[in-house]
Design brief:
The chain is α/β, with parallel strands linked by helices and 245 residues long. It has 7 helices and 13 strands. The strands form 3 sheets. It has a 6-stranded mixed sheet, with helices on one face. A 5-stranded mixed sheet has the order 4-3-2-1-13, covered by helices on one side. It is globular and about 50 Å long.
């Protein structure tokens, strides 16, 4: 099963009239943050494939539709509460929001390597970056760990029902000491390393870390998980069993 992974930068090879010729063979799209809704919509409508996204620390115009915020505005607020209650934005832009959720997509069935049985693609996600200026979608290490703990019941259900916790962990930030930087904004989350050790996804796909040098690592294997930087775009492929395909 093949995925187009994008983040942080509009790539001219993707944002092109030839997108179908280049990427028409992918099965789904993974958007790892800091991308405009118009760009995501272009990719999804052009390829007509399932898509999943998380928010980064930029391009947050739609963030309030997915996450309730404290209302610090005095007086009537035109988008507070009523907008949240009226609109279900889960599949806006044609993409499904994966931030702090677990998704079992039965429209994308794969043959499990271990059980050799058909099951849905399993995705977990986490939006945001390390907190550096108290902006939207920024979290302390402790806050992010708590959010991941809340996913535990659904991940355990996946294990009991489908035989594995998740296939892909889609994030914006990277794990600590894997592809990250030492400045406060670009430090990764240590709890992502815990997630890898505990739930063994085949892939952790992240953005946030811009690649300005071709020698910078894009792919790192840790334990059973391949960590991939989706900056601009890249392609990944999930391994499947040859039996019952």
């Amino acid at each position: 099963m093949k995925f187009l992974c994008v983040s942080d930068q509009i790539d001219p090879l993707v944002y092109s009239s030839n997108i179908k010729e280049r990427f028409g063979s992918v099965d789904a799209i993974l958007c790892a943050g800091d991308l405009s809704s118009d760009y995501i919509d272009f990719i999804v409508s052009s390829l007509n494939k399932p898509a999943y996204f998380v928010f980064g620390n930029h391009n947050l115009n739609g963030f309030h539709y997915y996450h309730k915020q404290k209302n610090t505005h005095k007086g009537p607020h035109p988008t507070h509460k009523k907008t949240w209650e009226i609109y279900d934005m889960t599949n806006s832009f044609g993409a499904e929001y994966a931030g702090f959720r677990c998704i079992a997509d039965k429209s994308l069935m794969l043959t499990d390597l271990r059980t050799h049985k058909k099951r849905p693609l399993l995705i977990a996600g986490a939006s945001g970056s390390n907190r550096y200026n108290n902006g939207l979608c920024q979290y302390t290490q402790r806050q992010m760990k708590w959010k991941l703990f809340k996913l535990w019941p659904k991940l355990l259900y996946n294990r009991l029902r489908w035989g594995t916790y998740c296939d892909i962990f889609l994030t914006h930030a990277s794990p600590r000491h894997i592809h990250d930087k030492e400045d406060p904004c670009h430090q990764g989350f240590e709890c992502f390393n815990w997630f890898i050790r505990k739930f063994h996804p085949q892939f952790l796909v992240h953005g946030h870390i811009h690649l300005y040098n071709m020698d910078e690592p894009r792919v790192t294997v840790t334990g059973d998980t391949t960590v991939v930087n989706a900056y601009s775009y890249t392609i990944i492929e999930i391994k499947e069993s040859e039996e019952n395909r």
